């Protein structure tokens, strides 16, 4: 007998057998009531069979979240701005190391794991950030399906590990699908899109995570898509996810989404009906209490115990893959020490990620980096000392968080002066009309104004205390209190370096002209202050690129609740933006040259070989993100104006050149037709390669002159 009192010859405990056999054996031993007790996110234990209680709800959006001490990395949208696949893989691997160590420590301490202490991490969020008003856009990897898929896949691979048998942690692709606000309507909303838009924009990242990264779970969204509730959609779950993509993991509902079936969407009459509908189309785990009504649903003939078994085999299958039923010595990740939690190596990784995420949007007369001859700087603004702007949302905690002010104070050389006052509130006007701030600013070489957004202004439904729109934004401008303060400084002739925090595009309007330099630093994590200071002083050159378009105003984008992609994101927007997708300046200059195509006339199904040279023609070492865009000039249906098909981060010393090679595949040349089918058509194509998405706006702002070439498929 084992210490659980279960015979060692029991098949489900036989580690020599495949997980699939062991799971079937275990499910076959359960009573219906025991099965039901295992189907909600706080799954109860079954002591007679040695099944421990387990809570599936854990978070790891940018670090182990809501579970005590952890390394706090930059918010997901900031990680997207690095365009650095290898880095993101390292970050996710560090996060799952910490998650593993914390899980085993909680087991040892308590004999079980509570909410947020498990290994099933409900991350990453791969919804497309299609509208800048959405408060949860900060959790995503931006507006582009390709970039989202590339970056989030590395995140999944890093979280889940590379052991051939066991998962280090289980990642989750969410929220499936066509889900990106408004937050106040998410429990009732019906997202209407064409089949073409569904496959072209909303599904590619999910597909890549399922078919290539082998993500272990998928979470359904709250809303309906094309009239079906997302957590019980024949189209999304049965036809596409399980059918076309052959998804083998488990499907979990968003929290209370199953209750929405009968309470808000009104597609069922009661909880039993909702449970039956969810089981029918393949929702395996409820973050809810609705599955408690499964026995009633079976009794009235709405569902069957066979469907219950199917669901349980999938969720328990995940737990088997995580090693939860095997001896610790068999599971390679069970021995990870708690010494990894918030360790120095992970802190350095958080610092590197924060530095790579910083996007330089403006640098008039090369005011940055801060020169050694600078006598004094004035630091001001409502986010300079804010802990919230380091954290974003879904965050962990650390006892060594570095605010923007602390970072600057830690970096400034002795002999250089520094003064600080907040000067303005985040959102509310000051009671004092005239402050000392302009005088303090005028005695300095320039002011570093720390402004922007925080989690008080944008986030998930119910979390942002200063958002009347349930976490979304009514306006995408800076709050008026901040605009007024920047104006006040500018009127007094102060040179201004604007450091902007936020998780979404901000329309700077007149402020853009009042300031000399702009750094967008997102929600940069625990090392944010140190990273931003080192970029400002030039210890690190800014290399971040925008993972989304910054519109000039809301006038440039469609209604928030319109899910059509017409006029949205760089792929379909014809209006000239404030800052284009893929844009970001450097302290050095890059030049693109010597573009060569191996042929310009292709037959259907050919690949195209491309080579080019990138040179760092400036005076400092840095990295450039080389971006490849394709335009289909004669498509038979609506296609993106241009779309990202590849990118590569290239480190170059001052004066160094590198030759790059790239293959344009038939799949990259293909379009999604009106039925959502990937189709390769003859016609003319334009390839553009540079440091920003195509368009004159990027070049006006200082992006390198791109290379362009045309080819034709006969």
Helix content class: 25-40%
What is the gyration radius calculated from CA atoms?
26 Å
Q: What best-fitting shape do the alpha-carbon axes yield?
A: globular
Task: Let me know the CATH homologous superfamily of the domain at 350-572.
Answer: Glycoside hydrolase family 3 C-terminal domain
Neighbour order of strands in the largest sheet: 9-14-13-12-10-11
| Structural class by SSE content | alpha/beta
Per CATH, the class of the domain at 350-572 reads Alpha Beta
Beta-strand content: 15-25%
Strand segment count: 24
- The N- and C-terminal alpha carbons lie at a distance of 71 Å
Q: Which stretches are poorly predicted, pLDDT < 50 over at least 5 residues? A: 1-5
Mean pLDDT: 97
Helical element count? 22
Which CATH architecture of the domain at 350-572?
3-Layer(aba) Sandwich
The fold-level CATH name of the domain at 350-572 is Rossmann fold
**Largest sheet entry:** 6 strands, mixed
């Amino acid at each position: 007998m084992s210490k659980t009192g279960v015979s060692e010859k029991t098949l489900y405990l036989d580690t020599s057998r495949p997980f699939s056999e062991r799971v079937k054996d275990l499910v076959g031993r359960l009573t219906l009531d025991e099965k039901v007790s295992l189907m909600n996110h706080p799954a109860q234990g079954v002591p007679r069979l040695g099944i421990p209680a387990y809570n599936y709800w854990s978070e790891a959006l940018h670090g182990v979240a809501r579970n005590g001490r952890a390394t706090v990395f930059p918010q997901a949208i900031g990680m997207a701005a690095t365009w650095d696949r290898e880095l993101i893989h390292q970050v996710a691997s560090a996060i799952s190391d910490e998650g593993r160590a914390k899980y085993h420590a909680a087991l040892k301490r308590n004999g079980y794991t509570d909410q947020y202490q498990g290994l099933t991490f409900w991350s990453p969020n791969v919804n497309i950030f299609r509208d800048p008003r959405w408060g949860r856009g900060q959790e995503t990897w931006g507006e582009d399906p390709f970039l989202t898929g590339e970056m989030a896949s590395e995140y999944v691979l890093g979280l889940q590990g590379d052991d051939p048998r066991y998962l280090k942690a289980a990642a989750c692709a969410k929220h499936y699908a066509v889900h990106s606000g408004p937050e106040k309507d998410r429990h009732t909303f019906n997202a209407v899109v064409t089949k073409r838009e569904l496959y072209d924009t909303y599904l590619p990242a999910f597909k890549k995570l399922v078919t290539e990264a082998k993500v272990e779970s998928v979470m359904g969204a709250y809303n309906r898509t094309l009239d079906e509730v997302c957590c019980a959609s024949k189209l999304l779950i049965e036809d596409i996810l399980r059918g076309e993509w052959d998804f083998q993991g488990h499907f979990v509902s968003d929290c209370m989404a199953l209750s929405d079936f009968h309470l808000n969407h009104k597609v069922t009459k009661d909880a039993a009906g909702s449970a039956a509908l969810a089981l029918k189309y393949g929702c395996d785990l409820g973050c809810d209490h609705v599955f408690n009504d499964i026995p009633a649903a079976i009794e009235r003939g709405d569902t069957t115990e066979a469907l219950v078994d199917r669901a349980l085999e999938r969720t328990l299958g995940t737990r088997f893959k995580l090693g939860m039923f095997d001896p610790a010595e068999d599971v390679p990740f069970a021995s990870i020490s708690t010494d990894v939690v918030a360790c120095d190596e992970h802190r350095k990784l958080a610092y590197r990620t924060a530095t790579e995420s910083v996007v330089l949007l403006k640098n008039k007369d090369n005011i940055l980096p801060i020169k050694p001859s600078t006598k004094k700087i004035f630091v001001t603004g409502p986010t300079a000392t804010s802990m919230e702007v380091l954290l974003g949302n879904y965050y962990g905690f650390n006892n060594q968080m570095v605010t923007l002010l602390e970072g600057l104070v830690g970096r400034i050389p002795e002999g250089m002066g520094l003064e600080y006052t907040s000067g303005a509130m985040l959102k509310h006007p000051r009671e004092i009309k005239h402050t000392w701030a302009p005088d303090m600013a005028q005695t300095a070489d320039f002011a570093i104004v720390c402004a922007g957004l925080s989690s008080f202004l944008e986030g998930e439904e119910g979390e942002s205390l200063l958002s009347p729109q349930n976490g979304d934004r009514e306006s995408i401008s800076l709050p008026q209190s901040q605009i007024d303060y920047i104006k006040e400084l500018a009127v007094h002739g102060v040179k201004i370096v604007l450091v902007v925090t936020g998780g979404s595009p901000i329309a700077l309007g007149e402020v853009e002209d009042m300031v000399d330099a702009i750094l967008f630093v997102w929600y940069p994590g625990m090392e944010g202050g140190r990273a931003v200071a080192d970029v400002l002083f030039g210890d690190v050159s800014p290399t971040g690129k925008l993972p989304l378009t910054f519109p000039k105003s809301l006038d440039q984008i469609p209604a928030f609740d319109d899910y059509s992609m017409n006029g949205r994101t760089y792929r379909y927007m014809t209006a000239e933006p404030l800052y284009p997708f893929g844009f970001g300046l450097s302290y050095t200059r890059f030049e693109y040259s010597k573009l060569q195509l191996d042929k310009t006339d292709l037959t259907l199904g050919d690949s195209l070989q491309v080579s080019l040279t990138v040179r760092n023609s400036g005076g400092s070492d840095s990295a450039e993100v080389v971006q490849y865009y394709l335009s289909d000039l004669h498509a038979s249906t609506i296609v993106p104006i241009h779309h990202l098909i590849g990118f590569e981060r290239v480190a170059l010393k001052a004066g160094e050149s590198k030759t790059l090679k790239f293959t344009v595949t038939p799949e990259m040349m293909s379009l999604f037709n009106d039925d959502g089918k990937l189709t390769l058509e003859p016609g003319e194509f334009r390839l553009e390669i540079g440091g920003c998405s195509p368009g004159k706006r990027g070049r006006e702002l200082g992006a390198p002159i791109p290379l362009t070439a045309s080819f034709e498929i006969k």
